[in-house]
Design goal:
By secondary structure, the chain is mainly alpha-helical.
């Protein structure tokens, strides 16, 4: 701006320094007319009013002249379009559009871009007189060839446009600074981008251009860095959330696996007690499909093969089952024996197992669970309603022998909990199950009452589950 003002001052000085030619015929002092210095106040006022009216008339005349020129140009443009073919019409219209853009950029102070668009418009259509006139005017401003009053007015207009552009840049920068301070980085970036665009349009040689350019670039770098850090923080939080969801999903899937193994194991125990050894082997295979090394399923499968060949091996295997159930009673949180060493399948394997189970075994499992529930109800009903016609105790039988006789007499599954013989740590007294039952004789006694009499002698109790009386 300072450069423009200095340049304007030089132009005025140059005009003032030109030699003045005197003409005696036109000298007011010589021809007897009043000079400005000798005019009366009324005459001075009249002269001022006349000058103001003349300026207004000149302004109106200029506007009318411009409208007249625009009308003539529109008529000329229409004539050219009417005579041109389709391809030429397209070039004429595009040339006129480029001129309109050049005129807009010129009014906004971007002279270089305006000149470039004028050249393109003339290249497309050599008869674009308006583009030629604007280019000539712009060339005279940029190159500094100002020789008349019109050039000075154009320079003043250009200076005003530059000043307005600088005010807009300052406004964008101040708005961007406030937004940046409040943490609204995206809007701040938009404001500084707008300021950067307007600075680019400022011609070279304007002092503020370099200062604004440096400041804006510094802010843009800071804002982009903060946006990048904000994005990385959001990505980190998102990753944390995804990891937490993944862990929750894994825990949920582990619970599903444990529930599946517990269900299959329960049915395996029931089937073993009912001597359905082939079914036990099938159920154990389903468990081993999840974890090939799960010790309970491996042992139970081996015991099922052995019990198929040796009938008496069934009782030996049942003691293992009672032992595994005792483990679960001790650890209320565990759903299966040795839960802590169960190896979980990967997600793909688990999906495959689930699909096979849903397709092949759903109905069997439902049926087995219903059978187990019915068996428990039947056992409960039998011990309450059925009676022993005659019981004679000779005083020589141990508890295990008495239980074996009861199974033969009633057909019920009666088992001695392994903890009775080998109680866990912390149990004060160990029942002496080898101690003979005192001799007695009873007739027509309910099975439940008989059990209570026998177990009371050893300070024991019983319960019923899906496998029988324990």
């Amino acid at each position: 701006m300072r450069n423009l003002l200095l340049f304007s001052g030089l132009l005025i000085c140059f005009s003032c320094s030109q030699p003045q030619q005197t003409n005696k015929e036109n000298d007011p002092a010589k021809d007897g007319k009043d000079s400005f210095a000798t005019k009366s106040p009324d005459k001075i006022n009249d002269s001022s009013k006349q000058g103001d009216n003349l300026h207004l008339m000149q302004g109106n005349s200029a506007d009318q002249e411009k409208k007249k020129e625009d009308k003539l140009w529109d008529e000329k443009l229409k004539q050219y379009l009417d005579k041109a073919n389709a391809e030429e019409q397209e070039k004429i219209l595009e040339s006129n559009y480029l001129f309109e853009q050049a005129d807009a950029f010129s009014k906004n102070g971007d002279l270089e871009r305006s000149r470039d668009l004028c050249r393109k418009a003339i290249t497309l259509w050599s008869n674009n007189d308006k583009a030629k006139a604007l280019l000539s005017e712009l060339d005279s401003i940029v190159t500094g060839r100002h020789t008349d009053i019109e050039s000075k007015e154009a320079l003043d207009t250009f200076a005003a446009q530059i000043e307005g552009a600088l005010r807009e840049i300052v406004h964008h920068m101040k708005t961007g600074e406030k937004l940046y301070s409040s943490g609204d980085y995206e809007k701040a970036l938009k404001e500084f981008k707008e300021a950067e665009f307007k600075v680019i349009a400022i011609p070279q040689g304007i002092a503020e251009k370099a200062e604004f350019d440096t400041s804006i670039k510094d802010y843009l770098n800071r804002i982009k860095h903060d946006i990048d850090m904000q994005r990385k923080k959001m990505e980190y939080e998102l990753r944390k959330e995804m990891i937490a969801e993944q862990q929750a999903l894994e825990e949920a899937e582990k619970k599903q696996v444990i529930d599946k193994v517990a269900s299959l194991l329960e049915l395996s125990f029931l089937s073993f007690d009912q001597r359905q050894f082939d079914k036990v082997i099938l159920l154990c295979d389903k468990i081993l499909d999840l974890d090939p090394n799960y010790i309970v399923a491996r042992n139970l499968k081996e015991d099922a093969y052995k019990a198929k060949d040796k009938y008496e091996y069934k009782d030996i295997a049942m003691k293992k089952i009672w032992g595994w159930k005792a483990m679960l009673r001790e650890n209320k949180e565990a759903k299966i024996p040795f839960q802590d060493i169960l190896k979980f399948p990967d997600r793909k394997k688990w999906r495959e197992v689930q699909k096979r189970a849903d397709d092949l075994a759903t109905q069997d499992i439902i049926s087995d669970r219903e059978s187990a529930s019915e068996l428990k109800k039947k056992t409960q009903s039998d011990i309450e309603t059925k009676r022993l016609s005659l019981v004679q105790m000779d005083g020589n039988k141990s508890l295990e022998e008495i239980i074996a006789d009861l199974q033969v007499q009633t057909g019920l599954q009666v088992m001695l909990d392994p903890e009775v013989k080998n109680p866990p740590d912390g149990v004060a007294e160990k029942p002496d199950v080898e101690k003979p039952m005192p001799a007695f004789s009873l007739k027509n006694i309910p099975i439940k009452k008989y059990l209570e009499i026998i177990l009371d002698n050893y300070s024991l109790d019983f319960f019923i589950d899906e496998t029988g009386i324990i």
